[in-house]
Amino acid sequence: MLSFGCDYNKGAHRKILERLLETNEVPTAGYGMDAYCDEAKEKIKRQCQNPDAEVHFLVGGTQSNQIVIDALLTKYQGVIAAETGHVSTHEAGAIEFTGHKVLAMPHTDGKLMPDTVEHYLKNFYEDANHDHMVFPGMVYISHPTEYGTLYSLQELERLSAVCHEYEIPLYLDGARLGYGLMSRGTDVTLADVARLCDVFYIGGTKVGALCGEAVVFTHRNTPEHFLTTVKQHGALLAKGRLLGIQFDALFTDDLYFEISRHAVEMAELLKDVFREKGYPFFIESPTNQIFVILENQKMEAIKKQVEFGFWEKVDEDHTVVRFVTSWATTSEEIEGVRALL
Amino acid sequence: MLSFGCDYNKGAHRKILERLLETNEVPTAGYGMDAYCDEAKEKIKRQCQNPDAEVHFLVGGTQSNQIVIDALLTKYQGVIAAETGHVSTHEAGAIEFTGHKVLAMPHTDGKLMPDTVEHYLKNFYEDANHDHMVFPGMVYISHPTEYGTLYSLQELERLSAVCHEYEIPLYLDGARLGYGLMSRGTDVTLADVARLCDVFYIGGTKVGALCGEAVVFTHRNTPEHFLTTVKQHGALLAKGRLLGIQFDALFTDDLYFEISRHAVEMAELLKDVFREKGYPFFIESPTNQIFVILENQKMEAIKKQVEFGFWEKVDEDHTVVRFVTSWATTSEEIEGVRALL
Amino acid sequence: MLSFGCDYNKGAHRKILERLLETNEVPTAGYGMDAYCDEAKEKIKRQCQNPDAEVHFLVGGTQSNQIVIDALLTKYQGVIAAETGHVSTHEAGAIEFTGHKVLAMPHTDGKLMPDTVEHYLKNFYEDANHDHMVFPGMVYISHPTEYGTLYSLQELERLSAVCHEYEIPLYLDGARLGYGLMSRGTDVTLADVARLCDVFYIGGTKVGALCGEAVVFTHRNTPEHFLTTVKQHGALLAKGRLLGIQFDALFTDDLYFEISRHAVEMAELLKDVFREKGYPFFIESPTNQIFVILENQKMEAIKKQVEFGFWEKVDEDHTVVRFVTSWATTSEEIEGVRALL
Amino acid sequence: MLSFGCDYNKGAHRKILERLLETNEVPTAGYGMDAYCDEAKEKIKRQCQNPDAEVHFLVGGTQSNQIVIDALLTKYQGVIAAETGHVSTHEAGAIEFTGHKVLAMPHTDGKLMPDTVEHYLKNFYEDANHDHMVFPGMVYISHPTEYGTLYSLQELERLSAVCHEYEIPLYLDGARLGYGLMSRGTDVTLADVARLCDVFYIGGTKVGALCGEAVVFTHRNTPEHFLTTVKQHGALLAKGRLLGIQFDALFTDDLYFEISRHAVEMAELLKDVFREKGYPFFIESPTNQIFVILENQKMEAIKKQVEFGFWEKVDEDHTVVRFVTSWATTSEEIEGVRALL
């Protein structure tokens, strides 16, 4: 069975497991107050080229979104997001659970365009009734988006400028950040993200770790008593080292970038296969998710030998499916797909 | 440095790490829908001797308490707990965060006595104003308690009977359940817990795992759409297998009980050391936590060579300190303490 | 100054104040447990022609929406509403405040069409990922809508049927219900509303009362311990009689309908004035709110002599404005507008 | 039937109703943006002798507590209160509903003593684990308390000093504030309250109004966008004038104080009656609530002719009952009680 269903279907990159084994018997303080966490934080700050960055480790993506958004918003504020954003649709209402509305906006290929945000904010403050409305208190974007697409540096710069004009933070959900940074055509670096966003997270779960996300506040703007907030949300690990050790491994010898580059290369090869065989793409994704249109008959035929995801129907006879690559994808698997098509 | 500060200061039991390594490359479905989780659930059910049990894996203890309590309580209900209960004091308000009051009651050595609960419930329903009050919707106990103490079978039976009389569930927080079950004097088995409680969790984090707790609903009473509730609380792991594999290891060849028995034996040896040397205990704990009273001078003297926890002051010259054993404690470490005293 | 700004700009209908005066010295129980509340509830049930109806009085509209929706939804559910619905936009996030998402849908003249709802529900349950999404747990409509428009009996029947098919309640926000029932062209009666909806409220504040809304559960489906839920939301009046007495007056000798009919008649006269003078309407509203398009110059000119509401810009030179009538509107005021135009 | 059951069993003081009648036809802006509210606010500020005071009107007491506490607390904070405080026991969890814990402390005759608060705060910050606990973010007191007792000026000054030392606000629930200010022995004035508390409310509902409480922030410390917060909690009245007009009446010609003084005088007369007849008091209350111990036989005998409240059992044969006076209590009613005993 060829495995392209998602980027979280296997364990962890070998180097991460090895690091867990090596450090296993060393006693440390609990709750993330250990030397492994400290070391990992330093390495991440260095990669961000941002001495004012503050790093905190959390377990998962929805958890990170919920905690960061809840910690930064005032009680009467909501968060602006694309209607296709993960927080808008696929987190079971985790943001509303904390009392905050997701202010959903139209998207372009999964992206929230700067003009959309600016227009909304301008209108909001011009509306005489805005005291009866949810105040926009943050902008949420994902990069890569849920469609695998990427913001250009210019778009990020404009989003950042709009946010600063209206004095609300820009938050970037980087569940798959590595794949964005290693995408062939991108002009956005980790240092750019750490300069233009007020807070973002570097996804570990979907980029080779067993679990874990590194939340980065970029200008010493960690909310006061953030550890208590994490605890209050049920998200504080007693063995916080589990996250520190993994991110220490990911940010040693550029493992994080190597994993991401590999997955992107595999995705490019896979796109070549589809292109050669004449399959059209539903959307142009430059990262590790590929959205391709298959005839239903073909889809059914190959399904027994390759795992992929259903995305949506196109018409009676065609379907959009999603193929995802990861650190564990091999060129043999790509050849396997080629043979199948 | 001798290490008795807590039972979460090292990684995981070797067998757990080995199992993670062995299974690492096998692709599975995400979100806990994998064969490892299924297998672990079956093993736990068997140990519980309860075919109606339903098992769900979560990451941490506060998270489990928050989700179970929130999922079972109706919106206008609160949870009865000892004032020393973990949910009352050391979870940063994680229960109130979900809108529910913790109805704190007096304790006896950390235990919530059946009479206390019965008296409260009786009075509540007799009070003509109870419509203006928080309805008691659940009883929370921890076993072992925060003081390392244990309920007797008779106490558990009475608590269970009182809860059933008032038609509210009994929930047992088993963050350190193994140490309770392997305690020398206990008459409570895992099957008893699974028979008398409506829901409980088997703690993994503090009993040899990297992370993870196994929540058990004992009579097919998992709340509807529980996975959605877990997601809404930000607690659903994409790589749910991380929990399944660990619990599969813990419940293979009685590893969970072996780990627990070892820690309890080490604790008994350590208690012997303190007894021999004439140190009084603050409380009689039959599990892996020992609360002993030290002269401050002594405490300061040994602190450089042994790690332990501060509990509370007794008087100007004496302090209660906590020593904790785990799967990783060795008899050499016990001898080390003896030499120090 | 002619007063068409809103329907809550004066005190209460004279008969309501008289009734408050007459009953003022009579001692009663608190919290709505008085004979006036009982009497008013009976009268409302009679008008609803529904012996299974249960009536509860609350103070305001947003409060009623928040409490009814929170009381009926399970914790992981959200409420479907038109994107123009009051709960979607103008209640400052009062629904999200209680942890529930508003699932906003496209509208037609402010109305949520049955097909829209059916399509959404069908798709939701067909989506393999719906466990990661907010479950739709209720349908919210307002009648009249925020644009003054009305559902036809057939539309209400279809909405009701769709809700029943998917086993979720239909909730009707009747902040201005009287104006809908007394509209010239409507085929919807109060008995229809009480038959087709699972819960609705009869607005008092905007239909002649000082404050107050009558929430009606239509088939003995009041949520358990509803009084406690009301208290928990900070909405229980110590002097609950204030609401009972007012609704008793409103439902004595058809005062509620008389007030509503009067306002609708005044609105029809006012529409005639605008029509005669050649002003186009932004939307065809058959109730007490009129949305008319004025040239900006005209708008500025008359603004000093007549109060009305700004709605939205049409283009550089034209604006939609809202004129609202009420129990207190006089034909002299209508003539005043005619003179001005 | 003699009526001593509570102070909210009749309508409103005659002067309030008259004022509602006089102003009924005058059109105003909605949502409290009217001249009556403005005027009432000015009068209250004058009585507070505090030009920095900011006044906001809300409908009820639990609502005021919920909104003030939620608006002032940071998300990870709780509110310190006596275990007998209204927010601790009789508000159906309205505070926890907003995510905040009530940190319940021992009381003395219903009062939260300054030493209790200071001791708690000192210990909290000394506890090495306080990051895992709810942060104390406010002190709540009621004056008069739930037992009708009063703080001395010195006690209020000390509470205020402790709060300022720890930089948390002092909040006074004045549901029955008038009765406290007009108590014979008190040395606390309204100006003292407005000087020593950071926020408090002047109760209207239980002091002669139909409904309404005046929340006073004492040093221009109204939380930002407070109107939006009020709306979000479902507490914003469309006809805000209903509150403004009533408080304007209450603070015209000292009506508020006159009503309060009358009720206190009636209570003193009633206490004389009980004293003469040899009935012991359960607690010494200097305000409008009297807690007296009756033989059960006597209690049953008089119950058909006088309404009073059950408080608690003393022993098999005796019961504490509560008699409450108000603006509407007459000396004839006092004589009626004398005749009965």
What does this structure look like?
- 4 copies of one chain form a homotetramer.
- Helix content of chain A is 40%, strand content 19%.
- Chain A has 14 helices and 13 strands.
- The first copy, chain A, has helices at 14-23, 35-48, 61-72, 86-89, 94-97, 114-126, 153-165, 177-181, 190-196, 226-232, 241-250, 255-276, 296-302, 331-340, and strands at 2-3, 54-58, 77-82, 102-105, 135-142, 170-174, 199-203, 213-217, 281-283, 289-295, 306-307, 309-313, 318-324.
- In chain A, the strands form 3 sheets. In chain A, strands 2-8-7-6-5-3-4 form a 7-stranded mixed sheet, sandwiched between helices. In chain A, strands 9-10-13-12 form a 4-stranded antiparallel sheet. In chain A, strands 1-11 form a two-stranded parallel ribbon.
- In chain A, strand 5 (135-142), helix 7 (153-165) and strand 6 (170-174) form a beta-alpha-beta unit.
- In chain A, helix 12 runs parallel beside helix 14.
- Chain A is globular, with a radius of gyration of 20 Å.
- Chain A starts with a strand and ends with a helix.
- Chain B binds chain C through residues 70-71, 74-76, 99, 131-133, 135, 224-225, 227-229, 231-232, 236, and chain C through 70-71, 74-76, 99, 131-133, 135, 224-225, 227-229, 231-232, 236.
| SSE string of chain A, helices as H and strands as E | EHHEHEHHEHEHEHHEEHHHEEHEEEH
Oligomer status: homotetramer
How far do the termini of chain A sit from each other?
15 Å
CA radius of gyration of chain A: 20 Å
Mind summarizing the main beta sheet of chain A? Answer: 7 strands, mixed
Strand proportion of chain A: 15-25%
Overall pLDDT level of chain A: 97
| Tertiary shape of chain A | globular
Biggest contact: A-B, 54 and 54 residues
